[in-house]
Write a structure and sequence with these properties.
Blueprint: E1 2-4, H1 6-15, E2 25-30, H2 35-50, E3 57-63, H3 73-82, E4 94-97, H4 102-115, E5 118-122, E6 128-132, E7 137-142, H5 145-157
Antiparallel strand pairs: 1-4, 2-7, 3-4, 3-5, 5-6, 6-7
Helix pairs in contact: 2-4, 2-5
């Protein structure tokens, strides 16, 4: 995994022609309140997104500091320090990763869910994405219904209903 500034995230997205209008299919869900379910959801989102994509994917934490009472920055900074990252989040929001980094990204996604932050998760093909909102909603995006279907099935098994 490599960690970069916001500018690298923008460049990565532009190189894949990432635009919201490219995603014809989307479903939004409420993030569960229970921390155990948030952990499980983090694993589910990363695994479903990475399924078969290989290559470099993006995790960009772009909303934080909105609900300070929900945050524990020391936990986040400590975890990132264990990854070798010492810069503040404001200087290093973009995480580029591959399938070998899945567990690390699952942990970062879980922290985003716990802290009511916002983030964007996009796979290497940019054919699917997950938008996590600081308002405790996440949205699955896919270019085709066939790409969205496995997400929807996994979410149904997770017992969440679309908003």
């Amino acid at each position: 995994m490599e960690i970069y500034s916001k500018q690298k995230a923008v460049e990565w997205l532009e190189s894949r022609e990432f635009r919201a209008e490219n995603y014809a299919h989307a479903r939004s869900y409420r993030i569960p309140a229970d921390s155990g379910r948030k952990s499980a959801l983090a694993r589910l989102l990363v695994r479903e997104l990475m399924d078969g994509s290989g290559g470099e994917s993006l995790f960009w934490i772009d909303e934080y500091g909105i609900w300070p009472s929900s945050e524990m920055p020391s936990i986040f900074q400590g975890y990132r320090a264990s990854l070798g990252e010492r810069r503040p989040l404001s200087e290093s929001e973009c995480h580029l990763f591959d399938e070998h980094d899945s567990e690390k990204i699952e942990c970062l996604v879980a922290l985003v869910l716990y802290f009511a932050w916002g983030a964007l998760l996009v796979n290497a093909f940019a054919d699917a994405a997950v938008r996590i909102s600081h308002d405790e909603v996440f949205t699955l995006y896919a270019k085709t219904q066939e790409r969205l279907a496995p997400f929807e099935q996994a979410i149904r098994e997770f017992d969440l209903s679309p908003l």
